[in-house]
Every structure is written in structure tokens, then in C-alpha cells.
Amino acid sequence: VDLAVEAEQRFLSDPSWLPIHHFERSQKVWPRKKCIESLYHLDFTPVHSTLKVVRKPTTGELQGFKEELLSDTGLTAKNSLSLQRPPGPLSEAVRGSTTNYPFWPGGMDEPTLDVIQSKGEQEEDIDFERDL
Hints:
By secondary structure, the protein is mostly loops. Helices cover 11% and strands 11% of the residues. It starts with a helix and ends in a 15-residue tail after the last helix.
């Protein structure tokens, strides 16, 4: 019998004998140990709002409080280029870290996606097939 014919009959006619289909012996389960106390641990999130005092402009009399949402909460040196972000930890005050983002050049805020995708007056579409 030709080797190619034998291989074809053995492998392609009935793939159920291949070891990739016998997963019963390969699966293992390790039971987890329950730790209820871990449910009490919460990571702190940045404050998303603040209270502002509403006063009468002429007399300064207190009229009430107003909740205002804060923008740019959660900005760190690890996820933002903005100058509005708070400084990093004291341990990185002098040397910084290689994973920190630099500030956006010139102290400008990051451009939005609309600004990046819009074309300026001196920009034009380039046809790489014909214009090169």
C-alpha cells in the first residue's frame, strides 16, 4: 500500500481517533478556595463631581448648593498627555518612569478625534496608485 494512500485513509477518513478530540484526560480543574474577605476590598475611584455654593451676587447670601460634574477625572501620568493631570507619585518626582506619557507639546491639550480626522486647507488626498 502506498504511504500517501495509507496516510489519507488514516487521517482524513476518520479524524475522531486523533488525540485532539480526546479532551477527557487533558482537562484538569483546581478547586478555588473561597475568601469572603476579598469582597470587602474596593479600589478607590476619583471623585466625579463637586459641590459649588450658590450665593446671591449682590449680598453674598447663601442660596444653596449645586453639584457640578468634573471633567478630566482619573487622569494620571500613565494614561494622559494633558497638562491638566495631577503630578505623579513622590517616588517618581525626579526620575519619572518609562511608562509615563509625556506632556503634549507646548502645553496644549490633546486634540479630539474630530480635529485629527479633519483636513486642513493645505492638506489634500493623496492617491498612492497614480500620484507618486
